Amino acid sequence: MAAKSPVAPNSPATPGAKPAARSPRRRAREFVLQGLYQWQVSGNDEAAIEAHLGDTEGFDKADRDFFVGLLRGALAQRESLQERLQVYLDRPFAELSPIEACVLLAGAFELKNHPQTPYGVIINESIELAKGYGGTDGHKYVNGVLDKLAASLRPAEVEAKRAARSRSR
Known about the structure:
Layout: H1 24-42, H2 46-54, H3 64-76, H4 78-86, H5 98-113, H6 119-133, H7 138-153, H8 155-167
């Protein structure tokens, strides 16, 4: 799965600039995206995906437990996650680009099942994945959909953040 943009994910945008350090969780999310993409495009099962990605360069720097939990969870809950997401989509889930569909599945799973991670972090990580691997404006679509999903899954957290923003103005 290659990036569509001329600048690869986390590569310097300007000559001489250093790439941003990627945390083990960021790396895990990137591998989850690759795994979900493999599942969607080729139909590989979890075991084959995990074995293949486990041998991929850089996987040793990813948070393996987080990767496994996110990949397996998103695949196990894909039908219910797709139903939740569909409410906020402008077309059937099956008509989304494979990258945006996979980013949305992973983001939705994390929003639903990882309340210890702030929703803003999950959305920002999803946006970065969509920017790095998706179409030109796919990150905007991902942002809009996950923002609406977060408001329905985590209303108190979203409202508290909005209230804090309005107080700081």
